[in-house]
Amino acid sequence: MDATALLNIAAVLLAFAAFFGWINTRYLKLPMTIGLVLISLFASISVVALDALFGWGYAEVARSALSTIDFHDSLMIGMLHLLLFAGALHTDLDNLLRFKYHILLMATLGVIISTAVIGFITYYLVAAFGFHIPLIWCMVFGSLISPTDPVAVLSIIRTLDVPKNLQTKISGESLFNDGIGVVVFLALVGIAVGDTGHGAAEAASNGGAVAAHGAAGAFNPGAIAELLFQEVVIGVLIGLVLGYVTFLAMRSIDDYVVEVIMSLALVMGIYALCSYVHASGPLGVVVAGLFIGNHGTRFAMSRVTEQHLEKFWELIDEILNAVLFLLIGFEILVIPFTGNLVLLLLLIIPVVLTGRILAVSLPTALIRSRGGYVEKGAVPVLIWGGLRGGISVALALSLPEFDGKSAVLAMTYGVVIFSIVVQGLTVQRVIAKFVQPDAPD
Fold it and tell me: What is the pTM of this model?
């Protein structure tokens, strides 16, 4: 895509985001992310319905325009690192460390449990609807839908009245479990590609996530351990090293313009280096964001610089969130739906919630058995507040072609829309019902 086309698409998306944002703020008064998804979803469905009635052909024009946007690259490369850094920048590291074991268990053991539960149940459910999807691809679906989406979670949780302890656990899990989820996803896709006979070249041409790591053939435990080390450990180390270097540079000067530019360069540098060595860029920027947002603001910045840094990243966060959730609503135009698929995606929602229940309940029970503190009402809030978002859609769209891909896309999209709209709009009621107002912070 040339620069002119890219600028035209950006202009159209920003215009829609501004117009729909105005409608939401003026009339709906919903949280911005939920409002944008609902309005863009309504607009997409209206275009399809009007086309069906009058044959205007606008839906095909919209599909053609959307097909030029690579959702996977736009999110996983263009937006995600900036959004994660912005979220981590405003996270209290001291409070995060208080609940590190609970967060770590949910972000690792919880993702694995959820992947297995959702994968097995999905395998039998889709077979009942006449879709032939091998078990390994059902496991792939489980891996891409299991991690909570940090962008969706952070954008909604900050608009709610959540006790600080619970807010830390919800946001902390979402910041870290997507990195673990992507590792599980890559490993399972690698196995699936080997099982279905795809070569490395075909996997690379059809699956962006697979291509990034050259996965081909079945994964053995040693290869999975190597991938885990490469993605997680090296990604975290890169975030720590580059974050510390930036911290030292910021401490040596007092110029808010230069320091804000340095923070932006830090995110871009982490992404570039992690891409080169095939490490987890999302984990790298989260670690760097936590470091700069806590130690950096305390020991390396003046109050003026801190205020400008916070406002800059708050604006970046809001603008990119608006565009992202607008795109999620529009994506219904390019995801295939049939009668059977609509019923299937309705039934897959309780399956995903079952996986989430176990992913939260089992690690929480383990923490309690070790004498750890868990707030009253934490489990239902963590279950219902575990939103899915654009990351799941992006991973699903990056999959190579296989029998049943359309079903996986439809199920993913259905769960994401339900999660953002239904769970996002009702999580405050769950908090009010299960959490005591005087819950300790």
Answer: 0.89
